[in-house]
C-alpha cells in the first residue's frame, strides 16, 4: 500500500469502533494517555499502510477514510509513555485490535512476539502474527421478530454449549452439527419444545482464545471464557454454508428459537480479557490504555481477582461504556433476551464490591438492558468477592447455596429439614429483601462447571487427568456420592439407587420455588467420565451423547417441567407466606410433618431423618423422604393420587396414608371432585 493514494479525514469521535456509512469508514478509538495513534491497514498480501489519526476529541482518536469498504483489515499502533509503575505500557511495535471489533482475521497463536510484559518495551514487531480487525457491515432482515418475553416466574433455563449440544446428534446433518445452524434445526427445536424449557442459556459465543498453556498441551478453551473480542461472534461455531456468515447464522438461530417461543440468553465475560497476566499476549486493551482498562497494584502488576491474570477496571468511564455498548450490540443487533455475567462481582468492584457501583447502576437504569433477563454469577476470587444475594433488582443470581445444600441433603444426609425448606422456598433467607423476588434465586444442581448429574451420583472424586494438570484442577468439594462403587459401571442395585438419587435431585430442582436451571444433558444421563472441570475438553468427553441418551429420564424430566407449570405456587412471582392467596383461594404453602400436622420449631431443627410433606396451592402434595428406609406418612386429607411422571414404585397411596420409598421425592394431586 502507498500512503500517497490514501486520504484520511477528521471523521467523528462516536460511535467507537469502525463504521461504514455507505461512502467510507469512520474509525474511533479511546485512549486517555496516548500521545498519538496510527491506523494500520493491511492488504491481501499482508502489506501494511500506516495513517496517523488526525483528531483527538475527549481522548477519542478518530479519522475517516472515504471510499473504503467492508472487509478492510486494520489494527492500531498506539504511542505513549512506558512506565509500568504508572500502568502505562505503550509500545507501537505491538499491533492492536479494535476493542469494538465485530470480526477478526484470525486468532492469536502462542508466540513471544506478542509478549510485552517486561520492565522494558519489547522491540519485536507483532504485525505478522497478530490478528487484525475487520470492517463489517451486515444488515439483517428480522422479519418482525419479537422477543418471547417469558415472565421470570414461568422461566425454565437450559444451559448448553453451542458445539456440545448438537455435535453427536444423529438426526442433524453432519455438516451442521456443533453449529448455530444445528440449534436452529427442526430436530433440536422440537426437542427443546418437547422437554419444555423456555430459555436457552448459551456458554460464551464471543470470540475467544486458547490460553498459551493449553496451546502447548494441544488442548483448547472449550468453554470459551477467555474472551478477546466481546463484540465479535465466535466463528468456530459457524457451519460455513454458502451465503452465510457467522453473524447471519447466529441471527438465524435466534430468530428461529424466538419463533418457537424460546428465549436466548448469552453468557458474557467482562471481568477479564484474553491478555491474561503480564506474561500474556499484548493484543488490545493493554497496549491501548492499560491503566484505564485494568485494576492494578502499586507496582503496576494486575489485581488478579478473577484467577485469569487480570481484572477489568469497570469503574472507568471508557471501560463502562465498552461494556454497555457491547450489551446494546447483542441486544439490539442480535435480539438477545438477556445475559448471564461471568464472575459478576467484578461489575460491582469499586474496588470493594458495591451493589450501587457505577456500572451496575447504569445497567439497571438502562431503558433497554433493564427489561432483559440479567443473571449474575455472584462471586469472584478477590477479598469480599462472594456476594450471593447482594445484587440489585432486576438481577437474578446463580445460587450455589441451593446446589450445595440440596446435594448434601440428598447425597450425604447431612442437612436439616429447616435448611432444605429454606432453599426450597427460593432461599428466602438470602433473597427476600430490597424488593427482590423469588425468581432472583437461579436454582441449580449442576452447571457446566462441575460434575454432570450422572457423575454426581457415580463418583466420589474428580477425575481430571485429561486436563494435563495432574488432577489438581477442579473443585474438591462436590458433595457427591458414588453409592458404594466409583465409576459409571456398577451392579443393578447400585444403579437403581443412583437413579433414585438423580430423580430426587431433578425433582427438587424443578419443583422448588425460584428459577430452575437445567444443565443440558442431565435429562439424558450424560457423563463426562468424572471430569468436573472439562473446560479444555473439546471432544466426545464434553459433547452430549445422543446415541446413549436415556429416553426414560428425558420423559421424566419433561414430565417434571410440565408439572411445574401446573402448580400456581411455583409459577407466581410472590414470596410464600402460608396465607390464603386470591388466585387459588388456598394457602400457597403448608409445611407438614409425618403425621400430616404443621411442622413444629423443634421438628425443623432436628438433625435426624424424618419425612416432610409440602402442600402447594392447596392441591399438590410433595412428599420428601430423605431417610434411608421406607416411611409411612399420614396425609392431611383424603383422595390423593400419584402424579405423573413419578413412578408408582416411589410411593403408594391408600386413603389418607402413603408409603414413600427411601431417598425419594414424589408428588400427589388431590382429586377435589370426590372430597
Widest sheet: strand ordering: 11-12-15-16-17-18-19-20
- Tell me the span between the first and last alpha carbons: 88 Å
Q: What is the 3D form? A: elongated
Uncertain parts: none
Record field, number of beta strands: 28
**Structural Rg:** 27 Å
Largest sheet: 8 strands, parallel, barrel
Structural class: alpha/beta
Strand fraction equals: 15-25%
Indicate the mean pLDDT.
95
Number of helices: 16
Instruction: State the helicity in percent bands.
Output: 10-25%
List the helices and strands and how they pair.
Elements (H helix, E strand, L loop, with lengths): L16 E4 L3 E7 L5 E7 L5 E5 L2 E3 L2 E7 L6 E7 L2 E2 L4 E2 L43 E2 L22 E4 L1 H5 L13 H4 L2 H10 L3 E4 L3 E3 L3 H5 L10 E7 L12 H14 L3 E6 L16 H9 L23 H18 L3 E4 L16 H8 L7 E4 L19 E4 H13 L4 H8 L3 H4 L9 E4 L8 H4 L35 H19 L4 E5 L31 H14 L3 H4 L17 E4 L8 H5 L6 E5 L3 E6 L5 E4 L5 E3 L8 E4 L2 E4 L3 E7 L5
Parallel strand pairs: 11-12, 11-20, 12-15, 15-16, 16-17, 17-18, 18-19, 19-20
Antiparallel strand pairs: 1-2, 2-6, 3-4, 3-7, 5-6, 7-10, 8-9, 13-14, 21-22, 22-23, 23-28, 24-27, 25-28, 26-27
Amino acid at each position: 500500500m502507498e500512503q500517497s493514494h490514501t486520504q484520511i479525514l477528521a471523521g467523528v469521535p462516536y460511535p467507537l469502533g469502525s463504521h461504514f456509512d455507505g461512502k467510507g469508514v469512520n474509525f474511533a478509538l479511546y485512549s486517555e494517555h496516548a500521545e498519538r495513534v496510527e491506523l494500520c491497514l493491511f492488504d491481501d498480501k499482508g502489506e501494511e499502510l500506516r495513517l496517523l489519526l488526525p483528531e483527538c476529541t475527549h481522548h477519542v482518536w478518530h479519522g475517516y477514510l472515504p471510499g473504503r469498504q467492508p472487509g478492510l483489515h486494520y489494527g492500531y499502533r498506539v504511542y505513549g509513555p512506558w512506565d509500568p509503575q504508572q500502568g502505562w505500557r505503550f509500545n507501537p511495535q505491538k499491533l492492536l485490535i479494535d476493542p469494538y471489533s465485530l470480526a477478526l482475521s484470525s486468532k492469536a497463536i502462542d508466540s513471544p512476539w506478542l509478549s510485552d510484559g517486561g520492565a522494558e518495551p519489547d522491540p519485536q514487531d507483532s504485525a505478522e502474527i497478530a490478528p487484525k480487525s475487520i470492517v463489517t457491515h451486515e444488515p439483517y432482515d428480522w422479519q418482525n421478530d419479537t422477543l418471547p418475553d417469558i415472565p421470570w416466574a414461568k422461566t425454565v433455563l437450559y444451559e448448553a454449549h453451542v458445539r456440545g449440544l448438537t455435535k453427536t446428534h444423529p438426526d442433524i446433518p453432519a455438516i451442521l452439527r456443533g453449529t448455530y445452524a444445528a440449534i436452529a434445526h427442526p430436530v433440536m427445536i422440537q426437542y427443546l419444545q418437547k422437554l419444555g424449557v423456555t430459555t436457552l442459556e448459551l456458554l460464551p459465543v464471543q470470540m475467544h482464545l486458547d490460553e498459551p498453556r493449553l496451546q502447548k498441551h494441544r488442548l483448547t478453551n472449550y468453554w470459551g471464557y477467555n474472551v478477546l473480542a466481546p463484540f465479535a461472534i465466535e466463528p468456530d461455531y459457524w457451519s460455513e454454508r454458502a451465503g452465510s456468515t457467522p453473524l447471519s447464522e447466529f441471527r438465524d438461530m435466534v430468530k428461529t428459537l424466538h419463533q418457537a417461543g424460546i428465549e436466548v440468553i448469552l453468557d458474557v465475560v467482562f471481568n477479564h480479557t484474553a491478555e491474561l497476566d503480564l506474561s500474556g499476549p499484548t493484543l488490545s486493551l493493554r497496549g491501548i490504555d492499560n491503566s484505564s482498562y485494568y485494576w492494578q497494584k502499586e507496582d503496576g502488576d494486575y489485581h488478579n481477582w478473577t484467577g485469569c491474570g487480570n481484572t477489568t477496571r469497570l469503574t472507568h468511564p471508557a471501560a463502562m461504556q465498552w461494556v454497555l455498548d457491547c450489551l446494546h450490540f447483542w441486544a439490539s443487533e442480535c435480539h438477545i433476551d438477556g445475559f448471564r455475567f461471568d464472575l459478576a462481582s467484578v461489575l460491582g468492584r469499586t474496588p470493594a464490591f458495591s451493589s450501587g457501583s457505577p456500572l451496575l447502576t447504569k445497567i439497571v437504569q438502562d431503558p433497554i438492558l433493564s427489561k432483559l433477563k440479567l443473571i449474575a454469577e455472584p462471586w469472584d476470587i478477590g477479598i469480599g468477592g462472594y456476594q450471593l444475594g447482594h445484587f440489585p433488582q432486576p438481577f437474578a443470581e446463580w445460587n450455589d447455596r441451593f446446589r450445595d445444600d440440596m446435594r448434601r441433603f440428598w447425597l450425604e444426609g447431612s442437612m436439616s429439614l429447616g435448611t432444605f425448606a429454606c432453599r426450597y422456598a427460593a432461599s428466602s433467607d438470602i433473597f427476600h429483601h430490597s424488593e427482590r423476588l423469588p425468581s432472583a434465586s437461579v436454582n441449580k444442581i449442576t452447571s457446566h462447571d462441575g460434575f454432570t448429574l450422572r457423575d454426581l451420583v457415580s463418583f466420589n472424586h474428580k477425575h481430571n487427568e485429561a486436563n494435563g494438570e495432574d488432577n489438581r484442577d477442579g473443585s474438591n468439594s462436590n458433595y457427591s456420592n458414588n453409592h458404594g462403587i466409583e465409576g459409571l459401571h456398577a451392579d443393578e442395585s447400585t444403579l437403581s439407587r443412583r437413579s433414585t438419587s438423580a430423580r430426587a435431585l431433578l425433582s427438587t430442582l424443578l419443583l422448588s420455588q425460584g428459577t430452575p436451571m437445567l444443565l443440558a444433558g442431565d435429562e439424558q444421563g450424560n457423563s463426562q467420565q468424572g471430569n468436573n472441570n472439562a473446560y479444555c475438553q473439546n471432544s466426545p468427553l464434553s459433547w452430549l451423547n445422543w446415541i446413549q441418551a436415556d429416553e426414560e429420564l428425558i420423559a421424566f424430566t419433561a414430565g417434571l417441567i410440565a408439572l411445574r407449570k401446573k402448580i400456581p405456587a411455583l409459577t407466581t412471582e410472590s414470596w410464600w407466606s402460608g396465607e390464603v392467596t386470591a388466585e387459588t383461594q388456598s394457602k400457597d404453602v403448608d409445611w407438614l410433618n409425618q403425621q400430616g400436622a404443621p411442622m413444629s420449631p423443634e421438628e425443623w431443627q432436628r438433625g435426624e431423618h424424618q419425612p416432610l410433606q409440602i402442600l402447594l396451592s392447596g392441591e399438590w402434595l410433595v412428599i420428601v423422604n430423605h431417610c434411608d428406609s421406607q416411611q409411612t406418612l399420614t396425609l392431611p386429607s383424603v383422595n390423593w393420587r400419584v402424579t405423573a411422571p413419578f413412578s408408582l414404585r416411589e410411593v403408594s397411596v391408600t386413603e389418607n396414608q402413603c408409603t414413600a420409598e427411601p431417598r425419594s421425592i414424589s408428588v400427589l394431586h388431590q382429586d377435589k371432585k370426590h372430597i
